[in-house]
Structures are given as structure tokens and as C-alpha cells.
Design goal:
mainly alpha; elongated
Length: about 210
């Protein structure tokens, strides 16, 4: 009980997110958290029995923020071309602002499969699906009604694929950042080309 009284669950999550943002998910340990919060490792374990438990509680809210960012960018957009571009640019900008958070969401789980044992965590699965469904539905709605979209019946599939394209681009940018690779092209130039490629296959010509 002493550990619980000295640190709150919210304080742990806030500090963990800050550590990930500043130094990456690999540097997030219960020992580090305890030291920066001025409590024992056991005080952290009281709230989060494992690092996987902590990671899940960081990832789901981050997915909600991702969805909020792209949905805000889609407000007032009428054409498919504008919608796809707005979605991709908002997605990339959101994650480039915190690559540590991006790696936690989309990379870390590939190396720590215990984070997403969804068969045992139906409530987590529901939260993830609710977040991504909001994001996909927002883009799908614009595409399905847009006069310049090739096939309204494929709007949902196009929304998911657009997100996948953006995450793929971010994965490469994140890798370049991690190994300090000076890319021959700026992220803005690469994003411009990605938008052109995605839009080129989905938009009807006048």
C-alpha cells in the first residue's frame, strides 16, 4: 500500500510516455520509471504487473490521439483527392512529432508479442478496433460521397490501405532517424510523391 500512496497510475503513464518520447521505448524500464518518479520498482509493479501491461495502456490512448488527428484534418473536406492527402499528411505529421510513440505503437509489438495477446484481452481488442474504426470511417465517408472517387464501394478498403501506406512511409522515416541515415530526399518531398501515388490509383480523371 505504501507504494500505491506515493505514485498514481496516471503519473506513471505520463512519465512513461515522456521517457519513450525522449529516449525511445527500449529505455523504458520499471527501474528507470521508479528512479525518475522517486519510488521503488515495486511501486510501479503495483499498478502494472508487467511492462506489457504498461505498454498496452500507453498504446491505446495513443491510437485515439492518432484517430483524432486525422479526423480533424478531414473536417470540411469534400473531394477524394483532398481527403487522401489530408489524411496522409496529418498521419505523418502526428507521428513525426513523436517517433518514440510511433515505434511503441507499430514496431515494439513485433518484438514483444506479449503486448498484444488479443485472444486473452478482448477488452483491449475492442478499444483498438473502436479507435481505428473511427479513423477509417471518417475517410470512408468522404470517399464514398466524393465525386472524384473511382469506386464508392471500395471506400472502406481504400481508407485502410491509405493508412497502411502512411504507416509504411513512417516506418522507413523512423528507421532512417534511428540509424541517422541522411536521406537523399526530404520527408516532405517523399510525402508529396506518396500522396501522388496513392491518389493516382483512386481518383477518376475529369
Amino acid at each position: 500500500m505504501a507504494g500505491r500512496s506515493r505514485v498514481t497510475r496516471e503519473a506513471i503513464l505520463d512519465r512513461a510516455a515522456r521517457i519513450i518520447s525522449e529516449t525511445g521505448a527500449a529505455s523504458l524500464t520499471f527501474q528507470t520509471l521508479g528512479e525518475t518518479l522517486g519510488v521503488t520498482k515495486q511501486a510501479i509493479i503495483y499498478w502494472f504487473p508487467s511492462k506489457s501491461d504498461l505498454a498496452r495502456e500507453l498504446i491505446v490512448p495513443a491510437l485515439d490521439l492518432e484517430a483524432d488527428a486525422v479526423m480533424t484534418a478531414l473536417e470540411g473536406v469534400k473531394t477524394a483527392r483532398q481527403a487522401i492527402e489530408a489524411f496522409l499528411r496529418a498521419l505523418v505529421a502526428f507521428h513525426l512529432s513523436d517517433l518514440g510513440r510511433f515505434r511503441l505503437i507499430y514496431v515494439t509489438a513485433q518484438f514483444d508479442p506479449q503486448i498484444w495477446q488479443v485472444a486473452e484481452l478482448p477488452q483491449i481488442t475492442d478499444r483498438i478496433h473502436a479507435s481505428t474504426s473511427r479513423m477509417y470511417a471518417a475517410l470512408e465517408s468522404v470517399l464514398a460521397q466524393a465525386p472524384d472517387f473511382v469506386d464508392p464501394h471500395s471506400a472502406r478498403r481504400a481508407a485502410v490501405a491509405t493508412h497502411m501506406a502512411g504507416v509504411g512511409a513512417l516506418t522507413m522515416l523512423s528507421l532512417a532517424n534511428a540509424v541517422q541515415d541522411p536521406l537523399a530526399h526530404t520527408s516532405d518531398a517523399l510525402l508529396d510523391t506518396l500522396v501522388s501515388l496513392v491518389v493516382g490509383q483512386l481518383i477518376s480523371r475529369p
